Amino acid sequence: MQAVLDEAAKLPGLASLELAVHAENAPAKALYQAFGFRRVGLIPGAVMVDGRSLDEVLMQRPLNFSSSAAAPAFIPDGDDYALIEAAPDVDTYRRLRAESGLSPKTEEAARRGLAGTLFAVQLRHGGETIGMGRVIGDGGGFYQVVDIAVLPAHQGRGLGKRIMAAIRGYIDRELPVSAYVSLIADGDARHLYAQFGFEPTAPRSEGMALFKR
């Protein structure tokens, strides 16, 4: 990737580079982000793989970085915390859920669930992922915000708000008009979600769930 960027920087009049990557390919997206590429759009159902219709994420990188070094790997977010747009790996995902007080997930459930991620962010501190949030759904009419988690040692610093701000940005950029976005608010977390436009559905509707044991 660095060789490609160095070569592109030599081309006269070239202002930016663009690429497309499968929306479910979190490792590839993380690689491109590490070289300064940022998400700029989405092509729903762009490719067919094994009979499945997959979305492609469009990413762009300006060429106004020095050709001798890669662009910053993370989106700066202050206070020594960095926000990246990528789903965590299975082990990290399970650890964050368990240590932040969310219900545990089996390895199989985590693997299958992460593969269906539409959008995800992680917060990193000192080389460790300490927070996350995801959006799942059918890609058109219905979406759900899930896995909002921050490790206890890092709570109380507005990090959940940073995660939700990134998710709200994705909702505003990518979701079609009439999309229904839901979430489950535990306890006082409802106050955080209210800041980003989420409202209680009761009494007109009542949330229900089934937890497979």
Report on this structure.
This protein is of the alpha+beta class. It has 6 helices and 9 strands, in the order αβαββββααβββαβα. A hairpin with a 4-residue loop joins strand 4 and strand 5 (81-84). Helix 3 (90-99) packs across helix 4. The longest helix has 16 residues, at 159-174. Mean pLDDT is 87; it is low at 65-78.
* Count of folded domains: 2
Mean pLDDT: 87
Contiguous low-pLDDT stretches (5 residues minimum) are 65-78
Q: Work out the radius of gyration.
A: 18 Å
The helix-and-strand class reads: alpha+beta
The CATH H-level superfamily of the largest domain is: Gcn5-related N-acetyltransferase (GNAT)
The helix/strand series, from N terminus to C terminus, equals: HEHEEEEHHEEEHEH
Going by CATH, the architecture of the largest domain would be 3-Layer(aba) Sandwich
Q: What is the strand content?
A: 25-35%
Terminal residue distance: 45 Å
In short:
The chain has 213 residues and is of the alpha+beta class. It has helices spanning 2-8, 26-34, 90-99, 107-115, 159-174, 189-194, and strands at residues 16-22, 38-49, 52-62, 75-76, 81-84, 119-125, 128-137, 142-150, 180-182.
